[in-house]
Amino acid sequence: MESRNGGNYKNPCLTMHQPWASLLVYGIKRVEGRSWPSPIRGRLWIHAASKVPEPEAIKAMEDFYREIYAVNGIMDIKFPEHYPVSRLLGCVEVVGCVKCEELVCWEEVPEGVRLEGQTDFCWLCENPEKLIIPFEMRGFQRVYNLERKIYDAAVRGLSRVKGPLPVKFPLPDPRDPFSLKPGSLTSNLIGSKPYEVEKPPNLSAAIAGARTAATQFSKRDRSYPSSMSGDVLNCSEASQSMNNSTEDER
Fold it and tell me: Which residue intervals make up region (Disordered) (predicted)?
C-alpha cells in the first residue's frame, strides 16, 4: 500500500483504546471518529493503548457491530479472539475524511456505515491489515510517526484482512485522491434530510450500550482523548441531530 501522506508524516500511527483498535484492524470498524479532521491519507498504523478493556465494554461494542451489520443483512461476524494492549496491531488506509452530517446522508455507502458516523469528523478506512505478531511499543497522543526500526519490522509482518462487509468509499473526483475531504459532499446533499433508519429495539439498545461503554471508558482514563474509545461516544442520534458532538481533546 503506497502512502499518500503530506506534511511530516512518513509512517503515521494512531493510538486507540481497546476494543476499538482491534475492531478497526479487523475491518469490522470502518469509520474512525474524531473531533478533528484527518491530517493524512494513505496508510495509518494502529496501536492499542495500555488500558485493558473490561468485558462489559467488549460485549457492548461487539453487540453494537452485530446490530449495525444486521441492517445490511450480515449476520455472521468473526470478532477478534483477543484484544491485546500496548501493541502495534496493524494498519488501515485512510481514503478520506468527511463531516458527520455528510456521512449520515451519503446514500452511496451501506446503511450500517452511516450508523458509524457519530462524531464531528469521520475518518474513512479501507484495506485493513493486521500484524501476525503484534509488536509491543509505547503510544502517543494524536497522530505520530513510527520509529523507523519498528516500521521496518512491522511492514514485513502484515496479513490482509477481509472484513464482514468491506467498503469502497467513492471519491468525488476519481482523479484526485485527496478529493474526499470535509465539505466535499455538501453540494450533493443540499436539501437532503438527515439519514434515518427505523431502529428496532435490539439496534437501539446496542447503540445505547456502545455509547455508555465509550463514555464510561473515557471517564475512567483521562490519559488519552476520549475519541480513542471509539466513534460511538457522542452521536447515537446522529441521524436525527447533526450537531450532537462531544469534544475529544482535553
Answer: 216-250
